[in-house]
Design goal:
Helix content: 55-70%
Distance between the termini: 61 Å
Radius of gyration: 63 Å
Strand content: 5-15%
Order of helices and strands: HHHHHHHHEHHEEHEEHEE
Number of helices: 12
Largest sheet: 5 strands, mixed
Strand order of the largest sheet: 2-4-5-7-6
Structural class: alpha+beta
Number of strands: 7
């Protein structure tokens, strides 16, 4: 079963038990209300009416006797009011006959009959004599007393019957109250037992399987991927989740195997890369020493031939010697530029706080002769301080300024270098008024040894911008050509803000 089905069935059983207990309690409470209403609304008023009837008859008897003793008609007022009260009491008792039962009705009729007999045989003759009734004999008076004693006896029987009814009603009321209490206790026990049973059932069918599943999941999360998951028996959802976790575990095992294979391959590639780097460093050493020495010797002897024998050979021989000297010089330049390119990021120098104003000043100092000969003007805005390699940053600006001067137009070169903060990095711009760069070459210019012009038009090895990109990327930034700038060439580059300068 699903968790929803289990919860629904459990809640349904608890609700049925609760409804059953509450229903029985309501039935018992209804019985209690009926018994209480019968006692308070039926028996109680009947007893009060019977008491009113007794008072009415006693008032009649008292009024008659007062009249017979004194002969004054004013003493008959209680008698007359007693007659009215008696009639009202009979009417009320007869109206409640269905509630109080036929036994009480018979007792009421007996009282009525004896009261009529008393009035007919004693009261009527006594009142017929009027003021002369004082002459009634003692025997007649005794007969009147006997007749009223019969009335009293009937009233006593009526009161006794009503007391029995009251006692029975109170007993039934007590029984109903006790039954209600028992049912309420039973309903409470039933509901509590249902809740406890439901809790036990839910704990056994849901909570425990979930706890076991959680333990298995924690075991897998702890790194035990090789051991299959022990899926706990329980609701459908728990079983499905357990299966999905085990599927995930199997996938992790597969991924780990793939990662391990990739790690092995990566380690092998790292070893190959270290070997390649070692060979590259060895090559750089050879290029900087072993290749430079014979190259310098070739250049030196070619220059000697050019100096000593210039004009002594024919024109073609002088031209060949010039070609050899120029080739040796360009080869030296290419080797030096290639060495500079390979050293970026491998200098072993720790990064330090570098004021870019100082780096540009060093770059200008290295280019003093070129700047003076071309009449170039380098305008530097307010530049930040960043953390980096001072030598390489100086080389970056030296190459940018040298390129701006080299590819200048008819006007004297003007170079603008500015900086602006963009979030968590600085964006620097270097613009000039030179011949510019076609946007279609925006990426090609950053490739090593890529030239857009012949060596006869502009000298150089074509490595300058490639070196700039490598220096910027080594410092965690990027560099690109502003293709929207048409007044020359403009390069943008980003460099991270030094943590020491953050505010």
């Amino acid at each position: 079963m699903s968790v929803g089905s289990l919860l629904g069935a459990t809640i349904g059983v608890v609700l049925v038990l609760a409804v059953a207990g509450i229903g029985l309690a309501l039935i018992a409470n209804g019985r209690l209300d009926r018994e209480r209403d019968f006692l308070l609304d039926r028996i109680g008023p009947a007893r009060r009416t019977a008491l009113d009837l007794e008072n009415a008859l006693i008032n009649q008897e008292t009024g008659v006797r007062g009249f017979l003793i004194t002969g004054q008609s004013s003493f008959l007022e209680p008698y007359r009011s007693g007659l009215a009260s008696e009639a009202s009491a009979y009417a009320e008792l007869r109206a409640s006959e269905k509630a109080v039962g036929p036994t009480i009705a018979a007792e009421v009729e007996l009282v009525h009959a004896r009261a009529r007999t008393w009035r007919a045989e004693f009261v009527a003759p006594a009142l017929a004599h009027g003021a002369d009734s004082t002459h009634l004999s003692i025997a007649t008076d005794l007969e009147g007393k006997r007749l009223f004693d019969h009335v009293r006896g009937s009233l006593a029987r009526l009161q006794s019957a009503l007391e029995d009814k009251d006692s029975q009603a109170r007993g039934k009321l007590d029984d109903a109250a006790e039954a209600l209490q028992v049912l309420l206790i039973a309903a409470g026990v039933l509901i509590l037992g249902g809740v406890l049973a439901a809790g036990f059932l839910l704990r056994r069918t849901i909570t425990q399987p979930l706890a076991r599943l959680g333990s298995e999941a924690r075991r897998v999360a702890g790194g035990e991927f090789a051991v299959p998951l022990q899926i706990a028996r329980g609701p459908r959802e728990v079983t499905e989740v357990g299966g999905e976790i085990d599927t995930m575990r199997q996938r992790i095992v597969e991924e780990l195997a793939t990662v391990e294979a990739a790690r092995t391959q990566l380690e092998q590639q790292a070893r190959e890369l270290r070997r390649s780097n070692a060979e590259l460093e060895q090559f750089a050493y050879v290029a900087s020493h072993d290749l430079q020495e014979p190259l310098r010797k070739i250049a030196s002897f070619c220059q000697a031939l050019q100096t000593r024998y210039h004009g002594q050979l024919d024109e073609r021989a002088d031209q060949y010697i010039d070609f050899a000297v120029d080739g040796a010089k360009r080869m030296q330049t290419l080797i030096n530029d290639l060495l500079a390119f390979s050293r970026v990021g491998r200098g072993g120098r720790e990064h330090e706080l570098v004021e870019l104003d100082d780096a540009i000043a060093l770059a200008q100092s290295a280019l003093t002769a070129t700047l003076e000969s071309t009449g170039a003007n380098v305008i530097v805005g307010e530049l930040p301080t960043i953390r980096g390699d001072r030598v390489q940053l100086t080389s970056l600006f030296q190459n940018l300024i040298a390129n701006a001067v080299k590819f200048s137009g008819a006007e004297p070169p003007v170079v603008h270098i500015t900086a602006a903060r963009r979030g968590e990095e600085w964006q620097l711009s270097c613009s000039d008024n030179g011949i510019g760069i076609d946007p279609e070459y925006a990426e090609r210019i950053f490739l090593i040894f890529q030239r857009l012009h012949s060596k006869d038009a502009y000298e150089g090895s074509g490595i300058g911008l490639a070196l700039c990109r490598k220096i910027v990327e080594y410092h965690g930034g990027r560099i690109w050509l502003d293709t929207d700038y048409t007044a020359g060439a403009r390069f943008h580059m980003t460099l991270p803000i030094a943590k020491e300068t953050m505010q």
